[in-house]
Design goal:
This protein has 2 helices and 28 strands. By secondary structure, the chain is mainly beta. It folds into 2 domains: 1-55 and 285-375, Beta Barrel (Lipocalin); 62-284, Methylamine Dehydrogenase, Chain H (7 Propeller), CATH 2.130.10.10. The strands form 7 sheets. A 4-stranded antiparallel sheet has the order 3-2-1-28, with no helix packed on it.
Length: 375
């Protein structure tokens, strides 16, 4: 990858800093990747793999999962069924044993994402209120005797919540409300209205802020939070027929698959060339921030791209072709990206730029989210 003088100075400084990045301690459990996978026969699995390709577990489950919530200190992970799934699998990360299956409450289904609090006492899950289709709620489930027990819920102050993330001080949650109403047992839109928003909600359920985008087709699906409180969102554009834009479609204000909300500022578009937007078919699947490197990565499965930017300057550092690029996880020296069709890759920082290496992991079938467990 060729670079100009500005990029050369960036990479040179980065190479000097790489030696300070944390590495696994001697004798520690090997890092692993956690994700949902499906095979060619349509069977669904919760999997854990070490970076060398060795399997920790591959547990068959009845419902397709989407994202994974790691417990902060117990060897347990929660795999959450994708919408409109109704189960969460509470799994021992050492051997893949299902310790408990959480079933959705009456009038609710899951949206595929969950988070644990810092103390590891409660799992937070985004859910659909099926009695008022699309109304988003967060269910709070307390861990008791290795089981997840419902405790309370509060509103996301939006429709069709997807990914959500803790604010750096853990005082609240940033929530991506997709804005599309769906029935209880369907992924199909009930109408063509997109009422998407990024909300910041306090843990008592009160609304702190609400941001929207100008383009009525932009559905905010994913969110990532940097250590300094900067919020990034990933969009999927919703079109009436076949999820493809009509000829001559022009996104409002130029459009973007990524938006950014810096501290004390409104949500605004992250600079992205029009060719990039069209080239990825107006669809992002996963966004991830590397706080040590100040990088932002996004996957575009319909455009078959893995893209990386410098978070502060918006310089595009990588535009890599990866068929059905799916999940992305930040690792010590860069990112790991999975694919729904092909191999997984490691995009790592070097003094010359980003180098992409193939990983000895199983190819294909990976879902759109990937979680890295350092130990």
């Amino acid at each position: 990858m060729l670079c100009n003088r500005r990029q050369f100075l960036h990479w040179s400084a980065l190479a000097a800093a790489l030696g300070t990045l944390p590495l696994p301690a001697a004798g520690a459990q090997a890092p692993c990747l956690l994700s949902a996978r499906s095979d060619v026969d349509g069977r669904h699995f919760c999997v854990g793999y070490r970076l060398d390709g060795s399997a920790l577990f591959s547990t068959p489950v009845p419902q397709r999962c989407h994202d994974v919530a790691r417990h902060p200190y117990l060897p347990r992970v929660a795999f959450v069924a994708r919408r409109p799934g109704t189960q969460v699998y509470w799994i021992d990360s050492r051997d893949g044993r299902i310790a408990h299956t959480l079933d959705a409450r009456a009038g609710r289904h899951f949206y595929g994402h969950g988070l644990f609090d810092t103390a590891g006492e409660c799992l937070y899950l985004v859910e659909n209120d099926t009695r008022e289709p699309g109304r988003g709620v967060i269910g709070v489930y307390r861990l008791q005797h290795d089981r997840l027990v419902f405790e309370r819920e509060f509103a996301t102050h939006g429709i069709e919540p997807h990914q959500f993330a803790w604010l750096p001080d853990r005082s609240g949650l940033a929530i991506a409300n997709g804005g599309v109403r769906t029935e209880a047992n369907s992924r199909e839109a009930m109408d063509d209205v997109v009422a998407s928003s990024l909300t910041v909600v306090n843990l008592d359920g009160s609304l702190r802020s609400r941001d929207t985008l100008a383009d009525p087709r932009a559905s905010i699906r994913h969110v990532a939070v940097a250590d300094d409180g900067t919020l990034l969102t990933g969009q999927q554009y919703i079109f009436e027929a076949g999820n493809t834009p009509a000829d001559g479609y022009e996104p409002a204000n130029g459009g973007s698959l990524i938006a950014i909300k810096r501290p004390q500022q409104p949500l605004q578009l992250f600079p992205l060339a029009a060719a990039q937007l069209q080239g990825v078919n107006y669809y992002s699947a996963s966004i991830t921030i590397h706080n040590g490197l100040r990088w932002l990565a996004a996957s575009a499965p319909r455009g078959h791209r893995l893209q990386v930017w410098q978070l502060d300057t918006a310089d595009n550092l990588l535009d890599w072709q990866l068929p059905d690029c799916a999940g992305i996880a930040a690792v010590e020296d860069g990112f790991v990206a999975s694919s729904g069709q092909q191999a997984c890759f490691h995009a790592r920082a070097t003094a010359a730029g980003i180098v992409v290496d193939r990983l000895p992991l199983p190819a294909g079938g990976w879902d759109n989210h990937l979680v890295y467990s350092p130990a």
